[in-house]
Amino acid sequence: MANDGNYKKSKIGDHQLKPETMMMSYGYDPQFSEGSVKPPVFLTSTFTFQTPEEGEESFHIMAGRKPAPEGSVGGLIYSRFNHPNVEIIEDRLSLFEGSECSVVCSSGMGAISAIMLAYLRPGDVIVQSAPLYGGTETLIRKFLPQFNIKTAEFDDGLDEEGMLTALRDAGKKGRVAMVFIESPANPTNSLVDFEALNRVLDSIETETDHRPITVCDNTLMGPIFQQVVPQGLDMAMYSLTKYVGGHSDLVAGAVCGSREMLRPVRATRGIIGLNLDPHTSWMISRSLETLSIRMERAASSGQKVAKWLADNAYISAKILHPDFIQDKTYQAVYMRQCSGPSSTFSFVLDVSKSDAFRLINNLSIFKSAVSLGGSESLVCHPGSTTHSGVSTELRDKFGVTDGLIRLSIGLEHPDDLIADLDNAFKMTFQG
C-alpha cells in the first residue's frame, strides 16, 4: 500500500508499518475534525456538496455509472451509502485482512446476505462446506431455495477429491456460482484446505470455462490468526460482533476482497440499507486498536483450558481445539493456513443433553450465552441453540451432538476459568 497523504501513511522510509500501529491513525486526519485525536461520531444523515456538479459526480460513482477515483469509494452523499466512521474501519480492517478494501454491514448475516444477493441468481447453485454457523445454514438451505437457488455441500474440506466430486455433481443442477466455506467451522473447528480448494476450482474452470466465486467466513480465526484473501480466496467475511468488536456490545459484519469484487456488494448494501450506523462504526474503531492483544491473550488462555479439559480426571472428553485435533492432514493445513488458534473451541462428552445442561448450570464464571469472541468467557450448547434450526440428521452428520459444548475463552485469568470448570465437572460427574 502506497503512502496516501499523512492520514494514510503506511511506511516510514522503507519500513512497512504493522497493522497494529496503523489501527491508531490510518484513514483519519485530525485536522479535518478540529484536531481531535480520535475520530468523532459523525451523526448526520446527509452531506453537503461544494457544488451541484460535485453532487452529480458523487451519484454517478455511487450508482456504478462511473468508477471511483483511485483509492476511493466516492464522495460522501448519505449515510445509507457511506459515512466517515464506516470508511475509517473499512480502511483499517483491510490492513489486518491484507485485502484491497472492505465493505462493512449492519450484521454478519447482513454481510453474507449482501454477498449472496450481489452474486447469486435464480437457477444458480451454491456449494457450501459443512458445518456452517446455524444462521448461515438456515439462509442457504431454507431461504435461498425459495428463489430457485439450488444448494450442494461437501463435508470434508481436507479431501480434495471429495470436493472436486461435490462441485462436479453440483454442476449437474445448474451453474455453480459460489462456494461458501467456513474455516475453521463453528462449532467443530474443522478446516477447508485453501490450496486444495483452489486446485479444485482450477479444474472446474478448465472443464466448464467458469470459475465459481469463493467466500470464506473467517470469523473464528481472523483477522489475526488467519488471512483468507492473500491465500487466494475471493472474499473473507466476518461477523465483527465477535472478536473484532470484542466486548459483546455491538452487532456488525464485513466483507473483504478486491475493489472490483466488492463493487456489487457495496452497491447491494446501499440499495437494501445494510450500512452500519456511525456510532457502532466508532465503537469498532476503538476495538480494532486492541484486537491483536485481546485475541493473543484469549488464545493463550484457551490453550491452557483445552489442555485441562483433555487431561481432566472426571470424564473422557474429545477436544475440538486446533492444537488438540490429532490428524496429520488437519495439522499440516492448520500450520500452513493459520498462525495460531482461536480461543473458541468445543469439547464433546459421551453424555445426554440433560447432563450437558447440568454441567453448564454448574458453571459460575462462564456465562451461558450464544455468540463468541467477547471479553467475557461464554459457554454454549450449539445443538439446542445456534444450530437448533438445522435438522437432527444433519447435526448428527456434522458431529453437533447433544454432548458437544462450545466455549469462548475471554480475558479472565485462565487459572480461574480452569477452577470453574473443575468445580462444575466435579459437581456434575461426581455429585
Automatic annotation (TrEMBL):
Family statement drawn from the similarity comment of this UniProt entry: Belongs to the trans-sulfuration enzymes family.
Gene Ontology molecular functions: methionine gamma-lyase activity; pyridoxal phosphate binding
Residues annotated as carrying N6-(pyridoxal phosphate)lysine in the record are K242
Keyword Ribosomal protein among UniProt keywords: no
Give the protein's cofactors: pyridoxal 5'-phosphate
Annotated protein name in UniProt? Methionine-gamma-lyase
Q: Which Pfam families match?
A: Cys_Met_Meta_PP
Keywords, alphabetical: Lyase, Pyridoxal phosphate
Organism of origin: Brumicola pallidula DSM 14239 = ACAM 615
Q: Name one GO biological process term.
A: transsulfuration
Task: Supply the EC number(s).
Answer: 4.4.1.11
Q: Gene Ontology terms, cellular component aspect?
A: cytoplasm
List membrane-spanning regions: none
Q: Does the keyword Lyase apply?
A: yes
